[in-house]
Design goal:
Layout lengths: L7 H14 L14 E6 L3 E7 L4 E4 L5 E4 L4 E2 L9 E9 L6 E13 L9 E7 L5 E7 L12 E9 L2 E8 L2 E4 L2 E13 L16 H9 L14 E4 L11 E6 L3 E6 H6 L10 E5 L9 E3 L2 E4 L3 E6 L10 E7 L33 E2 L17 E2 L11 E9 L8 E8 L10 E7 L2 E2 L4 E3 L4 E8 L7 E9 L9
């Protein structure tokens, strides 16, 4: 029922902060006193050398050991060890699955004189003397979160404004049993695969966000972007047998799309054997194999047709397809009769989305929260119960036409921001026009949940309908 959409400009600014600030509690670091960070660009990628000063070891009044390095920030993921770390943003060629290789490392071990300090975890809420909630409460877990640390962690962030971005996070101090592993110098490479474009000296950035990204990365010469267009030529992808290169097809509308031979030829990709032309699209997520898209040779000497189903996001309003001629036949679209004889009558459905973007979830005083629908952070309303009580909400929506003989489907997106010992610790009863729907929604902790419920036939009416949410309060402290 609630569809959350992030305002694109605001998302861009916030994401810049997240990229620069690191993930998993690691924030961007100012230059460390006594540290040295150098980057050399090579034919195959980057060689990075990082030298840091010796760590400073402190013992807190509770006996916990705290490790600091000047200029490095302590990671603060709830329940994780408080370890000094620094992160750097790098730009990658668009067609790139880089490999990180440690070349040299200078390290030693020192005894750990006590238990290493770790970050607290959110636990309930903090109230003032009048009993009003004034923030989220934190408490120390019984034991830290188990994690295997690597000296350098590499994370591909995705594409933003046409730039392929990744983050390097360096942990110069890591726990190993009753010792600390301390790195004073590390040299490693980030190598692009064979065939990936390098050092492109891109043209002037087209907007402020691209200018900001070029200042943030440590290798701006490797950033790659292109101006808007329909068809562009690029080098063949490694492992393919492209005959005359590849064409990038940018699509911003869903539906049947045509590509003419003349347009391809004008871009430097003449078609010699139309039956050997293939079309590909990247997988759903990084690391997925490419998907071949079926084509129609609408006119053997004129054009191709294909069904475009662009995957849009807050960062881009188009999707890209790759066209290339190979030495083997390409995938072609089949056909079937459109005669409706003998086909049973179907049902036409109308989809109604209801949303309000009123609350930015990271502003909650409750620690780190997951993303909600579509990777968003905006929500409609804060629903919480009074201590030991219950509450309810109602939302009206208008349906101009209803087939009362057919059931309907309701989809809800909910985000829990409290986490107490009980499991589950969230429960919501959903009603349409006073009729309880099944199932009752339950979940545990700070999780984003999506629930589909069937609305039985005759329960919707033409005109104003009411969605009711009841939170009976199965725990003393509950918020969503």
């Amino acid at each position: 029922m609630v569809v959350n959409k992030f305002y694109r400009w605001f998302a861009a600014l916030v994401t810049i902060g997240l990229i620069a600030g690191g993930s998993g509690g690691v924030k961007a670091s100012p230059p460390a006193s006594g540290s040295n960070f150098t980057v050399d660009q090579t034919e195959n990628g980057l060689i990075i050398n990082w030298t840091v000063p010796a760590p400073e070891i402190f013992t807190d009044p509770d006996g916990k050991v705290r490790v600091l390095i000047p200029g490095f920030i302590l990671g603060d993921d709830p329940g994780h060890y408080l370890l000094p770390a620094a992160s750097k943003l790098i730009g990658l060629p668009i067609i790139s699955e880089p490999e990180l290789t440690i070349m040299e490392i200078d390290q030693s071990t020192i005894p750990l004189q006590g238990e290493l300090a770790y970050a607290p975890v959110p636990e309930g809420v903090t109230r003032n003397s009048d009993g009003l909630v004034i923030g989220g409460d934190m408490s120390l877990a019984e034991k830290p979160v188990e994690k295997t640390y690597e000296p350098v962690e590499f994370e591909i962030l995705g594409v933003m404004r046409g730039f392929n971005l990744a983050r390097l996070t360096f942990y110069p101090v890591m726990p190993e049993g009753d010792h600390l592993r301390v790195i004073s110098n590390i040299k490693f490479s980030v190598n692009y695969p064979a065939g990936a474009p390098r050092s492109l000296n891109p043209s002037a950035p087209s907007d402020t966000l691209q200018e900001t990204l070029m200042r943030k990365v440590i290798n701006p010469d490797h950033l790659q972007f292109s101006s808007p267009g329909t068809v562009g030529l690029k080098s063949p992808t490694p492992g393919t047998s492209a005959v005359n290169g590849q064409a990038i097809i940018k699509v911003n509308q869903r539906g049947i799309t045509k590509i003419t031979y003349a347009e391809l030829s004008s871009k430097g990709m003449p078609i010699t054997i139309p039956g050997n032309v293939h079309m590909y699209r990247s997988g759903e997520k990084p690391g997925d194999p490419e998907q071949e898209i079926a084509l129609i040779q609408d006119d053997p000497n004129s054009r191709f047709l294909f069904y475009a189903d662009p995957r849009f996001s807050r960062w881009t309003d188009y999707d890209t397809y790759i066209l290339q001629e190979e030495t083997s036949p390409g995938l072609r679209m089949g056909s079937r009769s459109a005669n409706p004889s003998g086909v049973p009558a179907g049902s036409a459905y109308v989809k109604l989305d209801q949303e309000q973007n009123n609350i930015y979830s990271p502003d909650c005083y409750c620690g780190s929260l997951p993303l909600v629908r579509g990777g968003d952070r905006w929500v409609w309303e804060d629903i919480k119960i009074p201590y030991g009580g219950s509450t309810s909400r109602s939302y009206n929506f208008n349906l101009p036409t209803v087939d009362t003989s057919k059931p309907a489907v309701l989809t809800l997106w909910l985000l829990g921001y409290t986490d107490v010992i009980d499991n589950p610790d969230h429960q919501v009863e959903v009603r349409i026009n006073g009729n309880l729907l099944s199932p009752v929604i339950t979940w545990d902790g700070k999780e984003a949940v999506q629930q589909q419920l069937t609305i039985p036939a005759s329960k919707l009416i033409e005109g104003t309908n009411t969605l009711g949410l009841s939170i009976p309060g199965i725990v003393d402290v509950e918020g969503m």
